[in-house]
Design a protein that fits this description.
The protein contains 14 helices and 8 strands. By secondary structure, the chain is α+β, with helices and mostly antiparallel strands. Strands 1-2-3-4-8-7-5-6 form an 8-stranded antiparallel β-sheet. A hairpin with a 2-residue loop joins strand 3 and strand 4. The chain is globular, with a radius of gyration of 25 Å.
Length: about 325
Amino acid sequence: MKEEHTVLETLGGPRRVALLLAGLVFGGGLYHWLTSESGNAMREVAMELGLEYEEVSQRRKLRGRIDDIGVAVETTTENRGGDTKWFTDFKLYAPDQPHGRIVGAGIRQKLIGGMKDSEWLDTGDADFDKAVLVEGEPGDLLPRLNAGTRPAILAATDAGWTLDGVTWQLRKSGRVTSADTIRSLLKVGLEAAEAMRLAENAQDVAEPMTDGSATAAAVGEEESAGEPVTPENAMEALDEYYTPRSLEAALLLAGKGDFREDVRTRLKNAILSRERTDEVIQVLGEAGGPLEIPLLNSVTGEHKEAAKQAIAAIEARD
């Protein structure tokens, strides 16, 4: 009895031992719950997107292709100071990506020590250049980062995606247990990769122009840009990805209560790239629903108060 009493005292007494045991039970339960839920989330995404799901020991993996873009999502571990840290790593292997590095401002601060000698490229868009670091061959990268592709790149880097070499990568701390989170992160990454690819394809098909053909092309572009967006051509304009006309179409459709996925995506990109922010917030407040609240909550700075009012309007309707 004396020996038993001594052991309990060494551990801090019966109450302390009970708390330690409860902590061990809770920690073990949480560990298995996170492992199970991350697997469930990946399995749901795999079924929806036609990817392969795999379990290897405590790790979970997604593999496959979406269109012709290779997709990989997996839980990984690192040993840091004796502690095992879990991560969820996303990778996209898309064709026709430029070789270089594209990094968002948030991640840039963590990498700045290893990038002191890097030459940061200037796209000519001050807001974009403030938010995103671009490093690589100017002739390869800058033509891709035009007005049509920059919003998609900005949205991806804001979510944590980076382009390293020719691979888009994203690391989330811990094991992601939400299928919606996995799905949305993949979507924004895929949109960035596809935007860069479309820019490359546009370069590939470009042909040298004579003075006459260049003038005709310029006139054609001007006429197209000036064509008003109407309910009849709104869907066609929306398919222009990140052009001003596509945003005009998204605002028109949303104003009529049409919040299909493509409309939501275009409005989200408009918020992230600061395009017609006042109008986008107003439309979301007048016609949006609960799904638009997280987007509005992301608004900061001079438009934050308007976003709060839009959220209040949505909540009042629902």
